[in-house]
Design a protein that fits this description.
Layout: H1 3-24, H2 34-47, H3 54-84
Length: 85
């Protein structure tokens, strides 16, 4: 792997962790920035210099952001379960 790929994977992993933390603490400070960074990094990793067409790009964005939002909801649900106990 080259350095750019390693940096992009680190960005994707860190942004996913921050999204879970934001969901857990009901924060929305970075909720508009993190999905953009995540989607751009994911698209760059997915295509990796290949010719991008609109359908695979949209598919990568939709699936990636559904997965990303699931981490936010998962963190929020974990926090709610902790409050109930």
């Amino acid at each position: 792997m080259d350095k750019v790929t390693i940096i992009l994977w680190i960005v994707v992993i860190i942004s996913t962790v921050f999204q879970y933390i934001e969901g857990y603490f009901y924060q929305k400070m970075l909720s508009w920035v993190l999905p953009i960074i995540y989607s751009a990094s994911l698209a760059w990793l997915y295509f990796n210099g290949k010719h991008m067409t609109i359908f695979p790009l949209l598919l990568a964005f939709v699936i990636g952001n559904i997965w990303f939002y699931a981490y936010y909801v998962s963190g929020r649900n974990k926090h709610d379960k902790k409050l109930i106990k």
